[in-house]
Amino acid sequence: MSEHTTAQAVTADGAVIRGTRGAAASRVALSLVWASTRALLLLCVFKVLTLPGADVTVDVSGIYHGWYEVLRTGTFPLSDVTWQYPPGAALAVLSPALLPFLGYALAFFVLTLAADAVVLGLLLYTARRPGRRPAGAWVWVAGLPLLGPTAYARYDLMVTAVAVAALLAAARRPRTAGALAALGTLLKVWPALLLTGVPRGRTARLSLTAFAATAGALLLLAGTAVPGAFAFLTFQRERGTEVESLGGLVFQVARQCGWRGQVLLTYGSVEFVGPYVHLVSALALGLTCAAFGWLLLWRLRAREYSPATPCDAAFTAVLLFTTTSRVISPQYLVWLVGLGAACLAFRTSRMAVPVLLVAGATAATFLEFPLGFDHVVAGDATGLVLMFVRNGLLVAAALTAARTLWRRTVPRRGRKPAGDDARGGEESSAAGTPGGPGPAGDTGSGREPLSPAAP
User: Fold this and answer.
1) Beta-sheet strands, E only, within 206-319
2) Residues 445-455, mean pLDDT to the nearest whole number
């Protein structure tokens, strides 16, 4: 072996050692930050530390526990209009029964912590594969605590764990991704958007078939085994414009100009009641329909897929639907942080800016609930500023994500588009060729293929 070849080998070995040490140090740092921030969240929900503002644990100790007692009798809470969830939500509400030696609330918080750890574990495992990175894990570890104890005081974190698992499985196991997305949909509806960006062809057929089969089987089981499985549809339809929503800003401003309406607790949330509320609710629904139309158009026009596209598309879709919703509850930010973390686990993702905007919106949400919720309900200057900042960040994130997704996947005029699955992961025509993408969309050189739109 020549001296030049020996020097190259030594340099390469040194780079590998430095890379391994760097990855190990990153995992240790992630674990320490996760442990310390989650300890603070647990201290808050256990009420060792008391924050000013509303008690965010009431939903668990009161509402969830009440539903738990009803569900144990073999029926859904049909007389409770606050039950606005699909039948799979019963699994989350009943889950504390897995720890019968603990009280209901304590068991719920422990299981939520476990779901949080599962998300971190999935992101760390993904980061070890070629073409992935630990940035996604950092988004999850640092982003979730920005919401405060609300993150642990709702079952949305459990749903997010299922959603992240579905997205990270999409490239290599489309059937598993479809089944997990169906399970998530029966837990809280929004995971129905997870398959928005799966590559066309065989991957889409497998994942969508698994989704339909799993959802159909679970709905049939719920509908025949437990009375009232679909009562949530009526209760959800009756909801109005919530004070924290984008539409709610209209009335927050209108109150300063003499609008004669009220803020009431109705259908489980604090909503505006009075003149023009139905009109604004209809406009919000129109915006949601417009977002759906844009997503459909994007799906028809998209041609340039990268391994990150399913995550980027799911993040964008959920962000659009969340921002235009009549209700933007604080716990919705858990979904967006989890999907943003899944995006940034891929080196080919370009969603860093909208993910950072979501992180800012998450911090602003903590300031408005629970800390400043009295100001939001009262509609004073502080509440108005908080809502403009939080909802403004969400709007900016949604528009930025949509623009980024379109530019990265829709070919420009005059340029020959890539094949439907040329960049889609396991269906790449280059799979198995030397240096080409492998079964999961990885390349022989350890890097993921970029779309033709990439610089």
Assistant:
1) 262-266, 269-273
2) 35
